[in-house]
Design brief:
mainly alpha; ADP-ribosylglycohydrolase fold; 15 helices
Amino acid sequence: MVDLQDRYRGVLLGLACGDALGGPVEFLSREDIATQHPDGLRDFIGGGWLELFPGEITDDTQMTLAIARSLAERDDVDMEDIGRRFVAWADGDPKDIGLTTRAAIEALRRGIDWREAGTHVSGYASGNAAGNGAVMRCAPVALRFRTDKARLITASRDTARITHADRRCQSSAVAVNGMLAHLLDGGAIDDLPGVILPDIVDPEVVSALEKASDLPREKVRSGGFVIDTLQAALWSLKQTDSLEAAVVLAVSLGADTDTTGAVAGAFAGAAYGASAIPQRWLDQLQYRDDLTALADRLLERSQQTKRN
């Protein structure tokens, strides 16, 4: 029997754990991580270029919290509210904000409509603004609209394009949330990505998903390009058989370790539930109680959507 509450909690807590595990080794190569942690990085260590404390989250989870709080409090997706929350978060001087996200938030601050803010970033017109900022934070949409595919797809696109308007970012957010919804309902990992491919319109995203399962490790890319993150996170889930193993493998890939870890953690949390998260991680995880409460509220919201 599917324990939805455990899986819902697993998505947000797993995402945050992947973020916290990967944050201190962000931008290290996979070779350097392997040298420093020959058995894999399995414990929260803190440090890194952001000088994190063990269990501290980064912008990945911080922006996830902003979307989750809006979806929990509002009756539907309120993109203007989400935009205000992004601006307020940036005004709080977080340790890190991605370049594309920063530029889009500045556009929002200037009064640019949320539908256009994501186009006011360097590289958009040339197709060079396809960073992974949209997929690192999109999971609350799957929790809120798991029972309504049409709303899930629309909300995934909208919460992506407010900062990352590139079509690949929007399609990747749809892909992440579609796979999360499948796993939350007890769907098999082996059925991914096939069951969600009909909902993905971008051929580049479809191609990357189709190749993810069979890639050798040396071909898995883990930088900031949105399709690389999507592929690496799915690959990490499908190569392993536990939440901890999936997150540790994702982080071991190096480069953008916090975001690869966060997306893989969300996938693994949906598949295995919060009960599979190591207690040593939960004991140190920043915002653990807030994430748990938000997961429960989004579960309630999703059930209301189903009744309506």
